[in-house]
């Protein structure tokens, strides 16, 4: 007891003699100054010398108790006020600026105070899908409040809570019942705090006829459907008359130069005559790498945007492919390359020929004359002289692109996949491209190629979807042995940041023409591949199959990932092919997998459990990528069957090593 009294006495003495201080930094932008001093009543106006940084900023950091303080600068001995601060006062008839030091607020649950609430005029916070559906989000500091709800004249369909960067996000899905949405937030933290417009108890209002953030939804046909990517030169050769005379052997040994530079003869008629195969596989859309006229195997160096490359066929062949694909309810998405052209594109060709007298100099970014095929002469994609960069700000260039878009739309395409979108300013996509394409056909799918966080591309928006390399990286890392928490965190990184309406249209790929093939990436380990493909086919988004992955094709990075499709079924990996077909069929039969929400239920060591649900339908996926099987306690709401093993479960206590379970009723 005596010791306890001593401790209490010590604490009281400590608190009585120690006043907690806050750090405050004074910064002055005066790069030409030789010396800068600060005088402030924090230290009774004793001069303090500021230190100059490399950038020319003068700084000093002091400590003081919360309150208002006077200060003034002396620059090279001349008394100078802080012109960036409008707060001032006079002391002894002299001018001083005022600096306010506030007490740091440390969030505490239940103190009936909130540090902040963020609800801003951005799509992340206010996300109108259409006149009947809106998503609203708010952010608060972690460990600051007990709960938060919304009060509104709309029906609340769902509420989600998750964490982003040490902040808690509350997300509400609202069904709108009137032309004007009214809402405010109710915060519970020891009491009820009403948080409305301008931090008052007034309701926020949103005019649903003209919302401050534009309506944004994605084509319904693209939600959750499976896309099949085809590299045309390497998929199927049907017409030999358009082949190069020295085309390599389709089934032969491949060397790097042949794969990089030689045409193997794949054509549009080859794709057309494979539609039964693709339809039977269960895919719903075909994405074609560039098909426009170009002097390369990859066709990303466009020569003529209005012509099909002769090695692939004719415009009539493409029209036939569109018609027969649509008859089988298959969509066709083509590749659009608008960042750069080839050097034999008519405008660049004239620049080479006429130099300073060319009419098309401003179509590109010319650096100097004479213009030569050299990156020092003009800007180009990643300094490849063969890919000169277009000046998309030029009105004639934009007019040309508009004609290209209108031409192929009139032919009946179903979407665009856009190359190298980060090389073009966002305003091109936001202000022009997206709106122009949607005016031509609102049901066209627009997918951008971007390898990182794509949140900004959905703000205005720019695209309906992106090639979701964030998904690929997360799933490949996990399939190789990464932890369950890594997988969940990596996937939730984009799930929690993107608008809800794009999640079902994201192109969830495992490989492409720019990466190693997935079977090669996973060391040709079938169990690892089954985990990766199992996640791909059960996750929220649109699975994208790179041609040949479904038969176990292998290949290192470009150009070895672009080997010809082997049509000899005796060479196919039947185990892989059967697995793909089984999962594709199951996905196509389950709306929960195509359209449903996702909820993670477990992440422990190597075991991940998530649920997909839509209306009354539910699918539960359990995966374990480790040799050990940690105990879980998953009680099911009835009897479920595992698609893979065909066993029945009412309760799951563990997932076997290197196994995926797909449970359904």
From TrEMBL:
Molecular function terms from GO = hydrolase activity, acting on glycosyl bonds
Is the keyword tRNA-binding in the record?
A: no
Superkingdom classification of source: Bacteria
Q: Does the keyword Hydrolase apply?
A: yes
Which UniProt key words apply to this protein? Answer: Glycosidase, Hydrolase
Domain Glycosyl hydrolase family 13 catalytic: from-to ranges: 229-587
Q: Which GO terms describe its biological process?
A: carbohydrate metabolic process
- What name does the UniProt record give this protein? Glycosidase
Q: Say which species the protein is native to.
A: Oceanotoga teriensis
